[in-house]
């Protein structure tokens, strides 16, 4: 079931990532590397490991199998010199180090960038934190929820008559991990030209800020503050969730030509000439009225009926998917968006496949996360650091691994 770096394929095969993070942001970054073929060695604290091993509904810590997939997991006590020495030795054979501790923690352990580049001048250190490595807030603890609020997204999510909502996933963590990966690959390109490593500094709040479109210019130029609007965007119409007799469907027809096709699909071609709906601006000004009109039409039909007629008229349409809707969807199946993996704990586990898809060197999910804490400790310490069984036994007895 398991494969190692030597058998891994993908565009990043041959690269090695040392993951020192925990929970989501750092591990997600390393997961992306692993999906693309890199050899990822995850370092956990002996005796406890990454808290993600136990997170989830009682008895079902399933996110661990996603975050830890394609990784080899070892233990090392980074608070002790012997554990720090293990990391330093591994850094000599690594291309990247990923960490998402509070800024200053790695320096306290003697594992900051200035320390690590003495071991390997070409090392690329990926640092993910709530507020970044610099600035007056840098030393604060920062979870995704706080970064989502500071970055501006949390205020915009939800209905206008109640407190802001959250996305239902750790959006800030995964975005920070994604931007960190992009930065690391840019740093890799620089290293290929110069031989120099560097630090990639990814802040959760800035990762959120990066996707806020024209939020800030709208305020600074026109003194406009975006507010929560629920399931639609103000003045973008029609583009909303509409009721059907057996559920919900999304329609997006705010462009003039598409709106014309929507009117034809509904059997109301004259709506396109109605002054209230004839232009993008007019539809925005009469958004609620237009949404009600469309909803009156959709709620008398099934999802399949609405989807069929909209596809026939080339109007963007989609079901509002839950997990069960994804499993047998023909498009999911055709693109292999989900993959089944053998799992020591679960028998078989289905999860999202590696993405994005590359035509010549595709990534892959080669195994689900190792269940046993320190499962690859002996393998890594023997193969990479040439430690003897006696040396490893001594480290175990002293609590270092």
Structural class: alpha/beta
**Strand residues, percent:** 5-15%
- The string of secondary-structure elements, in order, is EHEHEHEHHEHHHEHHEEHHHHEHHEEHH
Strand segment count: 11
Q: CA-to-CA gap between the ends?
A: 25 Å
What Rg do the Cα atoms give?
A: 25 Å
Name of the CATH class of the largest domain: Alpha Beta
Q: Name the CATH superfamily classification of the largest domain.
A: Crotonobetainyl-coa:carnitine coa-transferase, domain 1
Which CATH architecture of the largest domain would you pick? 3-Layer(aba) Sandwich
Question: What is the 3D shape?
Answer: elongated
Number of domains: 2
Low-confidence stretches: 1-6
Keywords: Transferase
Organism: Hyphomonas jannaschiana VP2
GO molecular function, one term: CoA-transferase activity
Protein name: CAIB/BAIF family protein
Quick overview of this protein structure:
The protein is an alpha/beta fold and 401 residues long. It is 38% helix and 14% strand.
Structure in words:
By secondary structure, this protein is an alpha/beta fold. The protein folds into two domains: 16-211 and 334-397, Rossmann fold, CATH 3.40.50; 239-324, formyl-coa transferase, domain 3, CATH 3.30.1540.10. Helices cover 38% and strands 14% of the residues. The strands form three sheets. Strands 3-2-1-4-5-6 form a six-stranded parallel beta sheet, sandwiched between helices. Strands 7-8-9 form a three-stranded antiparallel beta sheet, covered by helices on one side. Helix 1 (25-35) packs across helix 8 (171-194). InterPro entries: CoA-transferase_III_domain, CoA-Trfase_fam_III, CoA-Trfase_III_dom3_sf, CoA-Trfase_III_dom_1_sf. It comes from Hyphomonas jannaschiana VP2.
């Amino acid at each position: 079931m398991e494969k190692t770096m030597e058998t891994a394929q993908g565009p990043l095969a041959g690269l090695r990532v040392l993951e020192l993070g925990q929970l989501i942001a750092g591990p997600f970054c390393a997961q992306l590397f692993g999906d693309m073929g890199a050899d990822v060695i995850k370092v956990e604290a002996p005796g406890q490991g990454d808290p993600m091993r136990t997170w989830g509904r009682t008895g079902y810590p399933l996110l661990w199998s996603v975050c830890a997939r394609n990784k080899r997991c070892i233990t090392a006590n980074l608070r002790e010199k012997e554990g720090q020495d293990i990391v330093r030795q591994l850094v000599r054979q690594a291309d990247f180090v990923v960490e998402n501790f509070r800024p200053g923690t790695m320096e306290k352990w003697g594992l900051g960038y200035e320390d690590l580049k003495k071991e390997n001048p070409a090392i690329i250190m990926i640092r993910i934190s709530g507020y970044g490595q610099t600035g007056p807030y840098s030393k604060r603890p920062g979870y995704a929820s706080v970064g989502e609020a500071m970055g501006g997204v949390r205020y915009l999510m939800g209905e206008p008559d109640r407190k802001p909502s959250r996305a239902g996933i750790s959006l800030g963590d995964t975005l920070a991990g994604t931007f960190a990966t992009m930065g690391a690959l840019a740093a890799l390109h620089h290293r290929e030209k110069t031989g120099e490593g560097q630090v990639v500094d990814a802040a959760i709040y800035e990762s959120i800020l990066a996707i806020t479109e024209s939020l800030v210019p709208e305020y600074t130029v026109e003194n406009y503050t975006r507010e929560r609007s629920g399931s639609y965007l103000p003045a973008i119409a029609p583009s909303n969730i509409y009721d059907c007799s057996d559920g919900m469907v999304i329609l997006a027809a705010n462009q003039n030509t598409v709106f014309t096709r929507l009117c034809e699909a509904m059997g109301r071609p004259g709506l396109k000439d109605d002054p209230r709906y004839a232009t993008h601006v007019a539809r925005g000004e009469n958004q609620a009225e237009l949404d009600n009109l469309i909803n009156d039409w959709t709620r008398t039909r099934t999802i399949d009926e609405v989807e069929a007629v909209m596809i026939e008229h080339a109007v963007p349409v989609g079901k509002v998917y839950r997990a069960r809707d994804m499993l047998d969807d023909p498009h999911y199946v055709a693109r292999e968006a989900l993959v089944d993996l053998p799992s020591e704990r679960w028998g078989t586990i289905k999860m999202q496949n590696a993405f994005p898809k590359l035509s010549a060197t595709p990534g892959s999910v080669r195994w689900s996360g190792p269940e046993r804490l320190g499962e690859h400790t002996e393998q890594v310490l023997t193969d990479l650091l040439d430690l003897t069984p006696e040396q490893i036994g001594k480290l175990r007895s002293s609590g270092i691994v």
